[in-house]
Amino acid sequence: MEKTLSYLSPDELTCKFDLDNLIYEKTFSSYHQVRQIAFSAKYQGTHVTISNMNINNSLQLSDSQLRYIITKEMTIRPREISLVLFDCNSIYSYTYINFMLSHYLKKLKLFTNRFNFQLNIYGDNLIGTELLLNAIFQHFICCDCTVNWFAINYKTVKQYNEFEKSLFSEKGYKNPSIENLKLSLFNSSKLRVYFAYFKNHNCHLCHNLKTLDLSYNNIDDEFLARLYFPPLIQDLDLSNNNIYTLSDSFNISNLNNLKKLDLSNNNLIKISISLGMSSKLEVLVLSGNNLHNCNFLHKPLFQNLVNLNLSRNLISNLANLPLSLKILDLSGNFLSSFFNEQTMNVFPESLVQLNLAWCKIGIDDRLNSIGSKPTLKLENLPRLKSLILTGNRYHNFYSELLQVWE
């Protein structure tokens, strides 16, 4: 029967077996047992949410349903469980999550060992910040649970009912620890409080942190210089902040495992990291900044890049592209006078994807007229499978613009 029921969606199971009323019925029959099986099937392999508020478009497990499952000694097998706490300023919220974890966490761990946690903060004052975080982590440590994503979000009143499913990744895990941490507080002073907590308390759950998302925190150059990042970080997201320069004050020297760095949508005008260290950095996202060149790419830190996104900058010439590059996005730059016989070999042979969309290729900016015929020697790019030229112009044609030299 379980296999047959697995072909039905959660909504279909709820409707066909009247599961919303199941927990309130006191009579028991053979059909009642079938409905309990359907109830368990509803959550099989799903992403279940437990929260102190109703969340639209999510498969949510209410307090009453949770008590029913435990009382009836039923078992469900969700893929993962996300605990989402709204209005952390309220003493009610603190009481709710403390009660939930102390009474139900051990039982929930029998269902899955995959947990996500999200705190949503409204306003400037969080009741007992350290007390709340300590209580949460202590429960998870005692139950030997792994937290896949732990997120702290600052939200306005208008965002009160929003729920960001994208916070929760599908990655697996092995050790009892937080592997992914997101702090989006829209204010660097707020960020300092929580970031200091994770650093100063040497949180046991954070020793294996792999992903750190600090986007949307208004981080500037001065604040960035004071940030010390956990050494095992592989993915660091600093996008959508207020960073102007990236220099040796950026504490990246201890990040020997860093594979992806996202600095998109800042105000970067200069990158002057002089560290002589080689790195494992493979993905660098610099889109939406104010960079005029990419001369910084000759540094050892960038020599193993596989994926480089420089779209929507002010770049007018290219140099020092890493020989390991496979994916390069230059869309939305100013390369109108770049392509000629002297520069056509700048791209590494390893390139598989090249995006040159909206780069004003074929346009002479000085006269706002058609420039000299642009040249790209494709025979030197034997692995190239994708070349995007959308939005360029040569003799008023808006498609394939670059001459192929045989």
TrEMBL record:
Domain of life: Eukaryota
Keywords: Leucine-rich repeat, Repeat
Record's GO cellular component terms: cytoplasm
The keyword Repeat appears for this protein: yes
The keyword Repeat is assigned to this record: yes
InterPro entries named in the record: Leu-rich_rpt, LRR_dom_sf
Record's protein name: Uncharacterized protein
